[in-house]
Amino acid sequence: MTEARGPAGQDGTPHDRHAPGTPCRVSLMVHGMAATQEFYRALFGWEFRPGPRHLGPYVRGVLKNHEVAGIGQLPPDRHLPIAWTPYLASDDVDATAEAVRSCGGTVGVGPLDAGEAGRLAIVCDPMGAVFGVWQAAGRPVAGLTGRPGTPVWNELLTYDTESVAKFYQTVFGYEEEPVVSADADYVTLHIQGRPVAGIHGVGHALPRDRGPHWMTYFQVADIEVAAARVTGLGGHVVRPACHTALGPVVTVTDPEGATFSVVSRPG
């Protein structure tokens, strides 16, 4: 994941607090915890450890002793869309939640404490795209980046960039850099001069059953191998390989229907 953080340590992993607005974690809420863990263990090589139970059963996906994602259990009576959700860093989640409201968004969950790990809220932008806000308690645990099996990019798919870019800029202080193209409506969001996320306006190409939503990209060594593994594990390919500025990308779903993309980034 491209992140605005401080200098890296000797192992190449940044260790300072995430700058506000930086995607700092991704989480997935599902009905079948055991089956979902098996899918991502086989696909990305994740191991799993117990996490805070602020929203029910929850595990941390771990790669090389670093947390890379979280997976939680949805209550049986909650029939919500199964989707990967990025969390954007905040120094004050309560103030950020209030800013979301004042700028036309909504707060669906929280703000609330996540055990001793931090404080969070789950919110929607004015177009309905869901994302989280995360305030780490104390010194954050360093994540692993730039390796297969890790999240490397988050992108908002929405009707058009103009309708929501101002919202994110106001709430998080992003600097915007439009991509100049006759056939693409795309804005890259920067913090401290570093790209951290994108907004892609796709108009009527948005899935009718989803509407605006955030997409998480996970790095893999080979997208074709990863796509074949996804289908072999019970998932599906929803958009075949295409070349992007990030590298070759395939968009897939896991067996419960959570959509994500795998990308092979140039070394």
From TrEMBL:
Give the matching Pfam families.
Answer: Glyoxalase_6
Which PANTHER family is this protein grouped with?
CONSERVED PROTEIN (PTHR33993:SF10), GLYOXALASE-RELATED (PTHR33993)
Where the record annotates domain VOC, the positions are 22-136, 150-265
Q: Which InterPro entries match?
A: Anthracycline_SecMetBiosynth (IPR052164), Glyas_Bleomycin-R_OHBP_Dase (IPR029068), Glyoxalase_6 (IPR041581), VOC_core (IPR037523)
Q: Where is this region: Disordered?
A: 1-22
State what protein this is by name.
VOC family protein
The lineage's top-level taxon is Bacteria
- CDD domains hit by this protein: SgaA_N_like (cd07247)
- Alphabetized Gene3D superfamilies for the sequence: 2,3-Dihydroxybiphenyl 1,2-Dioxygenase, domain 1
